[in-house]
Amino acid sequence: HAADAYRTDLMTITRFVLNEQSKYPESRGDFSILLSHIVLGCKFVCSAVNKAGLAKLIGLAGETNVQGEEQKKLDVLSNEVFVKALVSSGRTCILVSEEDEKATFVEKSNRGRYCVVFDPLDGSSNIDCGVSIGTIFGIYIVKDGGEPALDDVLQPGKNMVAAGYCMYGSSCTLVISTGGGVNGFTLDPSLGEFILTHPDIKIPKKGKIYSVNEGNAKNWDGPTTKYVEKCKFPKDGSSPKSLRYIGSMVADVHRTLLYGGIFLYPADKKSPNGKLRVLYEVFPMSFLMEQAGGQAFTGKQRALDLLPSDIHERSPIFLGSYDDVEEIKALYAAEE
Ligand code: AHG
Ligand code: MN
Ligand code: MN
Ligand code: MN
To answer: Which pLDDT tens digit goes with each residue over 157-190?
Structure first.
C-alpha cells in the first residue's frame, strides 16, 4: 500500500488538546490558546538552534544571570521569545524564568489565569557543540479571587495543571502531560506541526541505565555513593547498569522516560541543594515521571510535595523507573 509510508490521520497537538478539552463542557479554550503560544516559542527556538552557527548565535551574551551563570546568546534570545509569546497569549498572569531574577507580573489588560514557570533553554553548555538541548515548562492556575501573588507560583509541584518539555535533538520532540498520562509529539518541519508520535508514554518499571555527573563523586553523600557503586558492581548477580550522561536535563530525562533507568543530580558537599532548580526543572520533570508511572525523590521526600520558598530554589533530585527510584529511597531511609 503506497500510503503505508505516511501517517494519514494527523493528530496534531492542537487537535489533541481540543479533543481533551471537549471532555470538560465548562472549558473555555484558554488552555489551548496558552499551549499554542508555548508551541510557537518551541518552534522558534528549534529553528534558531538549527542555525545557531550560521546566525551568529554561538557564544556568550556577556551577561550573568541571577544564578551566577554566564548567559549564552541563545539563553537570552529564547527567554525573550517565550516571555513575549506568553504575555501576548493573554492567558497568563505570572511568569517565572530561569533567566529573570524576578517573576514577571503580567499587566491587567493582558492577564489570564495561568502561571507559567520555565527554563527557556536547558543544557546551554551543549549549544556550541551541537548536542541536544531543550525547553522545560510547568503550569499552575492562579488561586481564585484577589490579585496574583508570588504564592501562586510558590506551590508544590503536585498542584501543577500541566508540565512538559521540548527537546531540540535529532528531531524536535514535545512531551506534555495535563495530568492524564504523558504524550509525545514530533515536529514535522515541512508542516510546521507537532504530530502525536508517542501516545501514552509509560516508563519501564526497571531500567538498565544510570545517568549522573560522576565527576562530582568525591563530594557525594553516603547513599548516593552506595547507589552508584551498586549500579557498577551489583552484588545480587544482576548485570551492571550502563552509564549515559549528556549534561542536558531534557535529553537525559527524555532518554530515561523512553528507555527506563534513573537520572540523578544529587546533593554534594559543594552544592548541598544540588544544582537543578525546583520550579522549572525538578517539578515539571517529576510531574512527567509520575504521570508515566515512574517516581521522583529528593533524598528526603517525594519531589512533588516540596513547597518552594524562593522561585530559584534548588533541590537534589533522583527520578526515573519505579523500581530504580525505590532502591535509592531505601538507601536514604537506611541512613536515618
Ligand atoms: P541550564 O543550561 O538551563 O542552566 O541547565 C543546566 C543543567 C541541566 O540541563 C543539566 O542536567 C545540568 O545542568 C548539568 O550540570 P553539570 O554540568 O553540573 O553536570
Ligand atoms: Mn543556565
Ligand atoms: Mn536547565
Ligand atoms: Mn536554562
So the answer is: 999 999 999 999 999 999 999 999 999 999 999 9
Of the ligands numbered here, which is closest to the C-alpha atom of 97?
A: 4
- Model confidence over 53-86: pLDDT tens digits? 777 778 888 889 988 888 888 999 999 999 999 9
Find the range with the poorest average confidence among 20-29, 207-216, 269-278: 20-29
Spatial separation of the C-alpha atoms in residues 178 and 265, rounded to whole Å:
25
With residue 104 as reference, give the H or E element that holds it: strand 104-105
Only one residue has cell 550560521, namely 54
Q: Are 200 and 181 in contact (CB under 8 A)?
A: yes
Contact 331, 227 (CB under 8 A): yes
* Size of the chain in residues: 336
Instruction: Return the C-alpha cell found at 206.
Output: 526497571
What's the gap in Å between 137 CA and the centre of ligand 2?
Answer: 14
Mutational pocket test of ligand 1: of 70, 118, 249, 278, the residue with most ligand atoms within 8 Å of the beta carbon: 249
- Report the share of the chain in percent with pLDDT over 90: 83
Residues 6+ apart with CB under 8 A from 311: 96, 103, 117, 150, 153, 154, 279
Q: Extract the C-alpha cell encoding 157.
A: 509541584
Q: Single out the residue of 4, 99, 85 nearest to residue 37, CA to CA.
A: 85
101-145 pLDDT, tens per residue? 999 999 999 999 999 999 999 999 999 898 999 999 999 999 877
116 forms bridges with which residues in the sheet?
Answer: 95, 139
Distance between CA 15 and CA 33 in Å, rounded?
12
Using alpha carbons, list the distances in angstroms from residue 253 to 56, 166, 293.
29, 11, 14
